[in-house]
Amino acid sequence: MDELAAALKAATPQTRLLAGGTDLVRAVRRPGSEPDVIIDLTGLDELSYVRLDGETLRVGATTTFTELQSDPLVHEHALCLGLAAAQVGSAQIRNVGTIGGNIANASPCADGATALTALGAEVTTLDGAGTVRTRPLGELLLGPSQTSLAHDEAITEFSFSALGAAHRSAFAKIGSRTAVSVARLSAALVVRFDPAAGSLTDVRVALGAVGGAAFRAARLEQELQGRPVDEDTARLFAEGCVAAVQESIPGRYSLPYKRHAAVGLAYDAWNMLALVAPCEPAWV
Amino acid sequence: MQLLLTVNGLTHEVEVRPTARLLDVLRDELGLTGTKEGCAEGECGACTVLVDGKAVNSCVMLAVQARGKEILTVEGLAEHGELDLLQQKFVEYGAVQCGYCTPGMLMSAKALLMANPVPSEQDIRIALAGNLCRCTGYAAIVAAVKAASGHDATPAMVLPGEAEELAVEVATDPETLAIVEEVVEAAVAGLTEGTAPAPEAFPSPDAPAGPPGAPAAPSSEPPENADDAEGGD
Amino acid sequence: MTEDLQYVGGSYPVHDVAQKVTGELIYGSDFSVPGMLHAKLILSTIPHGIVKRIDASRAEVLPGVVKIFSHENSPMTRFCRARIHPGQDLAPHDETLFSEHVRFVGDRVAAVVATSRAAAEAAAALVAIEYEELPALLTVDEALASTDVLVHSTGNVAYEFEVDKGERPDLEGAVVISSSTSTPRVHHAALEPHVCIAQGHSTGGMTVWTTSQGVYAARTVIAELLDMEYHRVRVIKVPMGGSFGGKTEYIIEPVVAFLAKETRRPVKLLLDREECMIATMVRPATWTTIRTAFSPDGMLLDFEAASTLDAGAYASSTPDYSVHMCKKVTKLYRVPHYQHQSRAVLTNTPVGGAARGWGAPEIAAATEIHMDRVAAALRLDPVELRLKNMVEPFDTDLVTGLSLGDARVRECLERGAVAFDWAARRARPAGRGRLRRGVGVAAGAHKNGMFGAFPEASNMSLKMNEDGTFELNASLHDPGCGVVTTMKIIAAEVLGVHPDRIAAGEADTATTPFDYGTYGSRVTYVVGQCARVTAEKVKGRLLQAAAELLREPIVHLYTRDGAVRVRNDAARAIAYRDIARLSEMRHVPSISASTTYYAVSNPASYSVQFAEVEVDCATGLVAVTDFLAVADVGRAINRGMVEAQYQGAVQMGIGYALYEHLDVDEQGRGGVDGFKNYHIVNAPDMPDIQVLLVEHEGDDGPFSAKSVGEIATVPTAPAVVNAVNNALATTLSDLPLVPERIIAALHEPEEVPACSSC
């Protein structure tokens, strides 16, 4: 890690950080885009981990999607992240693609971003001066291919409250085909279900691939807070997703499609929670 | 920069530019052209190799990322000239047409079977989701992978090796050979005596083959004078 | 079938399978010769304009750069990338090596030749081009409407064609139905990119290693362009990773040959995927309107159609393509009167041309979608409607006047409907839930070679070696579908030896006799029959030699398992190798034969395909859940490969129906730059395909075999579209049925995105 800080210290705006490489390799080979230095994080095992630290789950930046997909801690405490990881690209991409690289690349369609946003993740970084900072993911992801990372700053870890036994989470994605497709819409849903009260609390809804970066549908979350687990809530959830999609990309060419597809996305995510029997959207 | 890469069990020292891809080093520096380039963007999987047992797209991996790791390419599958089981099944199940996707398919399948020796059809299709094929529709490939994991179902194709067995059977029996040698001797004797053999002694080079395009019986009609053929003199 | 066949009908891997599974086979893209240079193309970034200035100063000084070529230092002789022989009709010479007048984003402006690929790429990025932009015609409508902006000086309509055959009967009481269908611009998506290597020799000769599907044709174009005598130009077909028509035409061969001649070094040009998608060729987008008149009980009385193709920036083979779109319907349906107009329109977009099926998939999409429309209007089952109007064996094609041969399409439809349980599935209601299922059927027809429209013949020779093995010498062009294997099986059957005792290579203008190449579905039917006839001649010679040696009349002899044998006397047989040895001693150095085989017929090949789909009405995604392809193949030479070809062909057709489309934006640029957003069906989305082969004797192909490779993909897309329309009770007819179109059809029917210049 000291080596990393030292390498970062020497970084210039033309320096690039290499994690998996599935995005970076193409970028640095474009004529005119050659970096001065590539800092290769591939060998840094210190950044590849999934740890439960009290009630916080910590995920190292160079953990690959294959690792996330099969990690038991992720499965138990951050299922939506594991589900998202399983749907990133192909096996070849998942084997080397990292969660840190995915976030730093800041594609608005990044599946990892949607899941981490629902989990309320914070990002820890290290810079050339050796400073360690932690900030909310939403402050790091600014827009398409835009982050607030300085040129000498590397993501080292993602952390968030581990979901407990009472939590359920889901991740759903609509691409152009079943597998190996960039998301056209994605949703991550986290709820806490209290059987005694029969209602949902701690509802979190993150939407991705609409707008510049994944975001939380705050108003929808409030509407769902405290609601029972029934078909009406499912419908409310779907309608809320549609409204959130509508607001995020007004006037965009893809809006008529995404507005409708959001219904399917919402029901897919809802059904994945497996709190009740699967429901279908009611058609007029 | 200097780089040590272990490929198919052999360690190589190569000189590479920092942004050289693993694919380029394998193909251009090490001459291992079995790994193909189909898209250069990690989508088609033709460039798939195994790095420490995991399938990766070598077209979006820098060569430096592979240092200190075990790289396996399609050339490393067969041992001492004997095809690996997966390769054999690809042959048997007709899973190869143009063959351009084949090395990548084999490597993805190899990685799958190493991690999951008895995969379901769904597991196989997901494992191959990043390997595109335009010739086969994937069916024979999936069947071949299933067969390699022990679920032989479809009848196999006729394999190249069977030709050997047939060759052994074909031999002229000694008796016939004796008669035939007589005929030949006679013909040759005629020649050495300076007498040109009768034209009938030789198969005529321009026997009619029937009208063009006729799917008819073979041209076994003998030329008129064939029955008279009896050696040269 | 009654013949007792030993090899034909078995299943064989492709002849070079061992090299393919070990990675040993050298494809064009793997090929290199010592001292080879590498080229990189510089392509136009604007859709229409004039190159005013090329500043290569920064590029030229890069280490490794040998030379940079453009219109300024290359011949501006025009050629036709699709021409088969000199003087051919419908071969517009409208293209130059490099363009001064650029006509689409992707047009060749210049090429860098350097000592390495990396150097060539780096240099290419440093060449600055200044254009004078001209207004661009990006859609067929714009091109047709424009009177002052012309893609080529000869006008924006590259070709117009009309066929009008038969007599219109009395249409009193007839039901008239209209439809219009559009098909998208599509990328062939062969896994290996386009590649060519050429080397100029100090003798004044040139060798070209190509993946083209017609070496002789390529040679005429190259030799003419470079003003070389043909015998000095050697064109060799190298192993290739698929084509599907995208490598039929000589797009980069003339360029590479020129670069090799100028630099006097070997030069290799290997395109990347983006260049393959926009700068080689595409399957042209089409629009077809059909108007039919049917009797109320479903008899087809009158068929009128008009088709428009987007030829793109150069005419290429689209004139011929547009003709062939008019020659498919009457291979399939009986109709008293058939009228079809077609035209190929030039636009400032990627060049359209040869693609698998040569217009048949495009017109089948329109026709079969139309037939379902008719069935709905007449309240007839779609299978029933087709059966009422389908051709019978040995009908005459109304348009070409040729016999359709032993046309078994009716049988395909009947047997397929049973095998697919059509009636029961069709009767099942799709429901109104989120997931809705539907079934669809479609039929297609294609030809077997060029007889009737173009000279059609093949040449080959076959010789026996001293050890009783054989060598076939023919200009074969195997795109990867088993052409070489097919020829070996045919010869093997005749000669009574295992196919592996026969060697056959691919085309080389220096050593293999003239053949047109692999296209037009001519290979099995014409080239294959040439192989049969040639093998029969050699067999005849073997029998004659054996008759001599065994002192038996020929009628007492037969060939089997590498020997000539005496009937009813198992002990008496003479092995081929002994015939060879002994004949040689009798001054017959080699038993061999050559043939020029002229095709005598051009029957149709048919396929009827059934699809079941499940549509997710929330997301618009369509899953193909079941599929049956029935094939009228005459005879399967290599059964396993016939089925395998069908599976691949259906993959292509599903993509055509649901996923694939290459669009250009308002700046004329392709909106796709690779497989990331150009989706071909991958393994998880590919359903299980059942293939049912219908085999009958009756035509003039080898052992009655007919073509397979193109017909297999002809009816696939409309079968899928018809199934979707069945599931949703819609009338979608603009391919592909991407989710947007499905959702719009369900929720906002007035706003279904149409395909103007898709």
Overview of this structure, please?
The complex is a heterotrimer of chains A (284), B (233) and C (758). Chain A has 284 residues and is α+β, with helices and mostly antiparallel strands. Chain A has helices spanning 2-9, 24-29, 65-70, 72-77, 79-86, 91-96, 99-105, 111-118, 137-140, 218-224, 231-248, 255-273, and strands at residues 16-18, 38-40, 50-53, 56-60, 122-127, 132-136, 141-143, 146-147, 153-161, 167-174, 185-194, 199-208, 215-216. In chain A, helix 5 (79-86) runs antiparallel to helix 8 (111-118) and helix 11 runs antiparallel to helix 12 (255-273). The model of chain A has no long low-confidence stretch (mean pLDDT 93). Chain B is an alpha+beta fold and 233 residues long. Chain B has seven helices and five strands. In chain B, a hairpin with a 2-residue loop joins strand 1 (2-7) and strand 2. The longest helix of chain B has 19 residues, at 174-192. In chain C, helix 5 crosses helix 6 and helix 10 (360-378) packs parallel to helix 18 (716-728). Mean pLDDT of chain C is 94; it is low at 753-758. Chain C has 758 residues and is of the alpha+beta class. Chain C contains 19 helices and 26 strands. Chains in contact: A-B, A-C, B-C. Chains B and C meet through helix 2, helix 3, helix 4, helix 5 and helix 6 of B and helix 1, helix 15, strand 22, helix 16 and strand 23 of C.
Topology of helices and strands:
The complex is a heterotrimer of chains A (284), B (233) and C (758).
Chain A: H1 2-9, E1 16-18, H2 24-29, E2 38-40, E3 50-53, E4 56-60, H3 65-70, H4 72-77, H5 79-86, H6 91-96, H7 99-105, H8 111-118, E5 122-127, E6 132-136, H9 137-140, E7 141-143, E8 146-147, E9 153-161, E10 167-174, E11 185-194, E12 199-208, E13 215-216, H10 218-224, H11 231-248, H12 255-273
Chain B: E1 2-7, E2 10-15, H1 22-29, E3 48-51, E4 54-57, E5 70-72, H2 85-92, H3 102-115, H4 121-127, H5 139-148, H6 162-169, H7 174-192
Parallel strand pairs in B: 1-5
Antiparallel strand pairs in B: 1-2, 3-4, 3-5
Helix pairs in contact in B: 2-5
Chain C: H1 17-21, E1 37-43, E2 49-55, H2 57-60, E3 65-70, E4 101-102, E5 108-114, H3 117-124, E6 128-133, H4 140-145, E7 157-166, E8 175-183, E9 195-200, E10 206-210, H5 215-225, E11 233-237, H6 253-263, E12 267-270, H7 273-279, E13 286-294, E14 300-312, H8 318-325, H9 329-332, E15 337-346, H10 360-378, H11 382-389, H12 409-419, H13 422-427, E16 435-446, E17 457-464, E18 470-474, H14 483-495, E19 502-504, H15 523-550, E20 557-560, E21 563-566, E22 569-575, H16 576-585, E23 592-598, E24 605-616, E25 622-634, H17 639-658, E26 689-695, H18 716-728, H19 739-747
Parallel strand pairs in C: 1-12, 10-11, 14-15, 18-19, 25-26
Antiparallel strand pairs in C: 1-5, 2-4, 2-6, 3-5, 7-15, 8-13, 9-10, 9-12, 13-14, 16-24, 17-18, 17-23, 20-21, 21-22, 24-25
Helix pairs in contact in C: 5-6, 10-18, 14-15, 17-18
